[in-house]
Amino acid sequence: MNELKYAIALAAVLAFPPVVFAVDGMSIEYGNSNSSNADVKLYRVGLQWDWKKKWLDTGNWHLGGYWDVSLGYWDNRSVSKTHGSIADIGLTPVFRFQQSHYAGFSPYLEAGIGLHLLSATSVSPERRFGSSFQFGDHLGLGMRFGDRGRYDIGYRYQHLSNAGLKSPNQGINFHQLRLQYNF
Predict the structure, then answer these.
(1) At 11, is the secondary structure helix, strand, or coil?
(2) CA-CA distance, 25 to 23, in Å (whole number)?
């Protein structure tokens, strides 16, 4: 039943063009968490809103950021899985140190700590999260390219856990490849 709610929410978001929400970017992600007790594939779509602020502006580099709203699907392939799939809704403020002027390829580093709501609290008996509410923090690097930096490809290492708010708190880590288009 929870998965139906997430599917309806996704359909509602996709039914309206991004311009209606003044969205600055759209992304897709693929991730993998492959450890001895968690073999999970992550598929995620997201919308981004640029903060349009520049801090620590040093000429061609600055610290900026954006809001990242995401909807994800976890395909649990763990041997002793407790749930075959998990839905994930997230909201993350992301700080990004990047080039101010796009000239061909423009590298960046980013970090974010956000909130996630999961449809289930475990992927296996050995990998339990304690609650549906999770914090998701990530470190990433990537490259913007194309006309005005419209295209973005990056790598993220993401950790999700509940920060010890409720036991057990075993968390999960993902290696992610992320593609983004900026309007």
Answers:
(1) helix
(2) 6
pLDDT tens-place string over residues 5-33:
655 666 655 555 554 568 999 999 999 99
State the CB neighbour count (10 A cutoff) for residue 101: 10
Residue 6 token pair: 């997430």
> Would you list the domain boundaries of the chain?
2-182
What phi-psi label fits residue 75: left (phi over 0), alpha (psi between -120 and 50 degrees) or beta? beta
Which residue do the tokens 């968690």 mark?
38
Q: Which CATH architecture best describes the domain 2-182?
A: Beta Barrel (2.40)
DSSP code string of 91-142: EEEEEEEEESS-SSEEEEEEEEEEEEEES-SEEETTEE-SSSEEEEEEEEEE
SS3 content of the chain, % helix, strand, coil (to 5): 10, 60, 30
Residue 99 pairs with which residues in a beta bridge?
Answer: 61
